[in-house]
Known about the structure:
Distance between the termini: 65 Å
Amino acid sequence: MDEMSNTNSQYLIDRGDNQYEVVIGLEVHAQVTSNSKLFSSSPTKFGSEPNTQVSLVDAAFPGMLPVINKFCVEQAIKTGIGLNAKINKRSVFDRKNYFYADLPQGYQFSQFKDPIVGEGKVILDMPDGQKEVGIERLHLEQDAGKSIHDLDPQNTFVDLNRSGVALMEIVSKPDLRSPDEVNAYIKKLRSIMRYLGTCDGNMQEGSLRADVNVSVRLIKSKDYGTRCEIKNVNSIKFMQMAIEYEANRQVDLIEEGKSIDQETRLFDTKKNETRSMRSKEDAHDYRYFPDPDLLPLEVSQEFIDNIKKDIPELPDDKKKRFIDEFKLSPYEATILVSDIETSKYFEEVVAKMGKNKDIKLAVNWITGELFAVLNDKNLDISQSPVSAKNLAILVNLIKNGTISGKIAKTVFEFMIDGDQDPQKIVEEKGLKQQSDPKALEALIDKIINDNREKAIEYKNGKEKLFGFFVGQAMKASGGKANPQLINEILKKKL
Length: 494
């Protein structure tokens, strides 16, 4: 069906003599981290029994009036600051009118013309350099309930636990050009919000999902093609798959001389294809109008400034500091700051290592051995079986020559089982590196004496045999000999 090329960082679809560029914009729905809903005091805990977190406001009982949650407003402004965006001191809540069984009001509280956050930007770290993606807006809105279709063959059930949950809709400009950029964008957004504590970004629990707008155009064209919106995709992998399928579907239609309908589509994860859901709505279809029950939301500059005071060091700033302070490569720094828990773990390791530390060695162990264990066990770094303190001790043991890098891997295997102190493991298991020159000289003298012919061959120019003697020395010491010292002694003796 398709032939993709990734030349000069461009993601293109080839059809004969034509090359098509994919244009992507995302509407990300991020659940605000808050104990209560946007307009009611109902809790927001995930996994509760259906309809146990529903107030009269959430169920749209007549006469119930919404009251704005100040904390959710603060969280939205905080996110806007993290996106380098304009904070609007005046914003308006509108009624977005549509009918669905899990929307008891018959409308959704949202923001249309006057959102709480205006234009901003996000910087993506791509393999070939950085890319800036524009943010169009961020607005607050309430989530709808959930229709459940699989409990009964004849009936649909409605769970209103999510009704009224606060969402931030973050709308990007159509600046994304490939599935890889979408991957980087979602991860960067999630990272920023986790640093800020405004959204946990848990896609499995529905805390982060996106509507994906896709269009295609000839590579030389400046005009945008007709876009289709893929609704409610809740995994990065599925977003990427949906984009690939949809872009190729649109190109096929153009090449056949057919037109593309502007429509809303769904991604079928089992068939790996998008399918038509309904014609694409425009704003007028929703009959937006300012909500009469909610006054315009007005915030002072002082209110915004107080929020700014609580903004932590964000990924881009932390990355720059890691490069400057710890002399990390941009690649290493990007990996370590991508997740707030990873950056905390790394900084704790560095702090526990003391003065004479080998930061490069620590980075290698975190991104190598530790990440491998976490991936194997499907754990977050916050659930690491090895504490930052004990990993710091292990790295120091390698640095000061107590153990070799090879022995350290054996020690690490023991550490995984219950976060054991590596110093104790080395002592109890007798794994301390042999660094006594006299003892190693005696060992090497014996090896040379036992292999006189090979020693003569080495002296006569067969230099590859040096590795043989190193191997014999390590074997004789049970792998505990200091390799550097072995090399030095052998060079003198041979």
